[in-house]
Design brief:
Chain lengths: 171, 235
């Protein structure tokens, strides 16, 4: 393996799980997510010589977002695909019991219902593990804006998980 | 966002000093709306923790392989330098291009004119991991898990096999494999086959009528390749 390839892989492969976690929430399905991860790494390799910052994970995440946006713009020109069935919402509105009954599929569905700005901010902070300041730098917005989006997104997510869209959440 | 919510967001983010945080704590004791906001924030974070997952097995290998196949990025040269240094810069650029070509050739052994997907299969065939404990026999035995990769825009699934002590790679794709230079091609009812050798490795390709193409690489003569291909694609 050439030195450039080895140096790039040594610096970036430790962040593969984080990039994949983000890709799973940007792509339509697991296979598309893997393709997105591959495209992210190939683009990152092209620009690796110009990457001088200390936060390689944040750099990869930003590239992944850009790749996904480009793909979304291309996809918008295609006819819409038929979406899968929506999982049934839990009807119990007691928070602790709702948490015990949650499964990953339902949580992922609820996350997908959030407005894009809130969803991306939550994914970057709560799933990838970036700080609010890092997310602000990635998205190019103030830190306070990120915190507001995350808080409102979490509240909306919780509301979806306890079925507040059906009832008002009170016993 | 009003001042009330802004203060609560700052509290949840840990931005408040001890005195202001204590004030919010006391406020929460008597404000149902704010208390609910904190509970919902906590519930969402706990739920999101359930979404943490490791990357799928094989993804790291796929990424490593894709990056290894990629040519090293070309260094950027300033235009001003090109005008000033003229012939010396052109000569340096040519040397760089040749170096990159040599490196690329080392990474992807095969004829320099071979399509990327064919070079990918050749590369796989030359880097098959040893299959410890697997008995050698006349019937092909799959080794490891299938690997999905995209080579120059063509999606491939690659699988290793071992048969009679010989390692083989079978690549399948929904697109036909480009025919490399000096390959012998024959057209049959509903499809085309081609075969070529690169050093000790033979390549045998079938573009089937169902839209699936298969490319087999193994150190075997053409007749044996055709027989092995028939066994593998009939599974």
């Amino acid at each position: 393996m050439a030195d450039e390839h080895r140096a790039f892989l040594d610096a970036t492969l430790p962040h593969l799980a984080a990039v994949h976690r983000l890709a799973r929430h940007l792509a339509a399905d697991p296979a598309a997510a893997e393709d997105l991860v591959q495209e992210t790494y190939l683009r990152a390799f092209t620009g690796f010589a110009g990457h001088t910052g200390p936060n390689t994970r944040a750099w990869l995440v930003a590239i992944c977002l850009n790749v996904a946006r480009s793909a979304a713009r291309h996809q918008a020109r295609r006819p819409p695909e038929v979406l899968g069935p929506v999982p049934e919402r839990p009807t119990d509105d007691v928070a602790a019991q709702a948490l015990a009954e949650l499964d990953r599929e339902h949580i992922a569905w609820a996350l997908d219902q959030l407005p894009a700005e809130q969803r991306i901010s939550i994914v970057l902070m709560d799933l990838i593990g970036h700080s609010a300041a890092e997310v602000a730098a990635i998205l190019g917005c103030p830190r306070g804006t990120v915190l507001a989006r995350v808080h409102r997104g979490r509240r909306r997510l919780a509301g979806l998980l306890v079925g507040r869209g059906v009832t008002d959440g009170r016993p | 966002m009003d001042a009330h919510e802004r203060r609560l967001v700052a509290f949840l983010a840990g931005d408040l000093d001890e005195e202001h945080a204590r004030q919010v704590d006391e406020h929460l004791l008597g404000c149902e709306e704010c208390w609910r906001a904190v509970q919902e924030d906590r519930l969402a974070r706990q739920a999101l923790a359930l979404l943490h997952e490791a990357e799928p097995p094989g993804l790291a290998d796929r990424i490593r392989f894709a990056v290894e196949l990629a040519p090293p990025p070309q260094p950027r040269r300033p235009l001003l330098g090109l005008r000033r240094r003229g012939r010396a810069v052109v000569g340096t650029g040519l040397a760089a291009a040749l170096s990159i070509g040599v490196i690329f050739g080392w990474l992807l052994p095969g004829s320099p004119a071979d399509p990327t997907s064919v070079l990918t299969v050749l590369r796989f065939a030359r880097s098959m991991p040893p299959a410890a404990g697997q008995p050698a026999g006349p019937r092909p035995v799959a080794v490891g898990e299938p690997m999905n990769i995209v080579a120059a825009g063509q999606a491939l699934q690659l699988r290793y096999y071992r048969v009679d002590g010989v390692e083989a790679v079978l690549a399948t794709s929904a697109q036909p494999f480009p025919v490399p230079a000096s390959a012998r091609a024959t057209t049959e009812a509903g499809g085309m086959t081609w075969t070529v050798h690169r050093g000790a490795l033979g390549l045998f390709c079938v573009d089937g009528p169902g839209g699936r193409s298969a490319l087999l690489a193994a150190p075997l003569p053409t007749a044996a390749l055709a027989q092995l291909m028939g066994e593998l694609i009939s599974r």
